[in-house]
Amino acid sequence: MTTAPGPNSFPVPYAGAERQSWRAIAKGLGRNALAGFPPRAFEEMAVARSFVGRQQIILSDPSGIRHILIENAENYRRTASVFRLLGPVLGNGLFLAEGEDWRAQRRTAAPAFAPRMMGSVAEHVARASDRLVGELAAQGGAEVNLFARLQLLTLEIAATALFSLDIAGEAPALRSEMRGYAGGIGRPTLLDFLTPRGLPVPRSWARWRFRRRWMARIAGIIAARRAEPMANPLANPLADPPRDLFDMMAAAAIGKRRLVEETATMLVAGQETTAIALLWSLYLAASVPGVQERIFAEAARLDLGPAGAAAALPHLVYARAVIDEALRLCPPAFSIVRQARSADEAGGVMIPARAVVLIVPWVLHRHHRLWRDPDNFDPSRFLPGAEPPARFSYLPFGAGPRACVGAQFALTESVLVLARLIQVFRIELAGDRPVLPLATITLQPDHSPPFRLLPR
Ligand code: HEM
Q: pTM for the whole thing?
């Protein structure tokens, strides 16, 4: 049963046309990819269509998803367009690496994201949140562009927690480069999808120049860090443990260029997605009556400063449910794309060789056959005791061997920042223009809504 829309209803704002020409799909991809998902994708377990001569399948069937992301993951790779669009910013770091190279990188990086590291992540987050709270308090309730500030915050946290780098000085310039790329030559065009991997498209040259400039900038930032003596993890890991991800990568003796690209990957992948998750969570908490009061009631009695944040985390149960629910309604990684190496069958759906399979959290998380009241913001779905979501119906961080390595990091960070802001401020939207999701590389807000933060 579906209830009537109320203040907690955030319906799908773009009904993609039922039948779309490839021209319309291509045009939408550059503007707002959400318009490419027809209403029946939210009703049916698989929707197949032809996209410029190649089969594209929007797959929501949980057993089919499990097959593709886990059981037969080896048969599926990232598409040429993903390499083309993300390569200039991520390089050949963990996200885009393949085969043995990927396995080695994942083995090196995983310990930095293990549960035992989350205490130290919490401390870094709390320290950065303290600075943010101080800055925002000084604004005295004036309108603030919170999204821009959150983007700097998440970049600073990734840099300090993973690389022991203080990049407060460089962060605005890095953000501006990223924004310029994503809004300009990083936007997909039809040729990005049509041209086989390895062949150039008209924007390749500009993207190559961007990549050189961007990686040189990252290399400059980590030069100072490279000069520091490395804790030697081989000597005695307990007495002299690696300090951070940087030490772990350096201990794995990877080359200088790879170190730069891996750093770029972690800074970018961990930054934009988490800032977006926080923005949506704050927007929803400010829009739906009662939500922030409940977070405040939980956070008020906790020490969320550097000394107490790690211990407070398990008590932020409702704040965590708000983050989980925001990630359901507005998943920053809105689409997980794979291309079949050879023909296969997934959940009863035939997948021809070279077909592109779209596993779309944006669709999956609002699927009418998988969720009750899918368009309603209802954090209680994720509270302890609630029936857990059906397996493979909730994938904000993907699944299987290529699932997000930073999921716990992102959750630790988002929950603590959300709770800390609401512990100190009452959050209000300063305008009444609704914020709509817009998908290019990630699921962004279509504009940066002005907020007012009033000290409690
Ligand atoms: C709310 C925040 C985040 C979201 C929604 C998110 C989402 C995702 C998703 C869906 C994938 C899988 C993509 C696929 O299978 O094609 C992924 C992979 C990845 N994420 Fe995240 N992520 C977040 C935060 C982070 C953070 C904080 C880091 C690191 C600091 C990070 C680093 C990565 C990397 C390196 C991969 C590639 C893993 C691999 O291929 O082995 N992410 N992320």
A: 0.94
